[in-house]
Amino acid sequence: SINNSDLGTKRPLTRRLSQSHTRNSWTPEEDELLKQGYSEGLSWAMISTTYLPRRSRGCCWGRFKILQSKIAYSRRQSKQELYLPVLSVQKRTQLFKHAWRLVAQDMLGRFWDEREFESFHLANITPKQ
């Protein structure tokens, strides 16, 4: 609290902004300039000064992090990438069966699917039925 000697009352300390701060959307051109500055190895302050004078260094850093998370999210959501391991296993099912048959032979002739199930169980993985 600050003593207001004129009024003899206390009022909370508040910071008034001299300018009205509004959020300005980033344009695709600004995003490209941001990426260019980053690829050149410039600091956030230099990117701000050189390429984006209307944006602060903190604003540039924040936007870059947002762009990176969008890229990572889109990579994770690629259906093709999500299904690649499944497709690979399906494609190589015969190889897996052959390998488990060989393992079963080494294990006193028990069936390969028994050994496969046991190994999945040991690893706490439920095999596809």
Automatic annotation (TrEMBL):
It comes from the Eukaryota. Residues 18-68 form the Myb-like domain. Residues 1-29 are annotated as: Disordered. InterPro entries: Homeodomain-like_sf (IPR009057), SANT/Myb (IPR001005). Residues 16-27 have a biased composition (Polar residues). This is Myb-like domain-containing protein. It comes from Phycomyces blakesleeanus. The lineage of its organism: Eukaryota, Fungi, Fungi incertae sedis, Mucoromycota, Mucoromycotina.
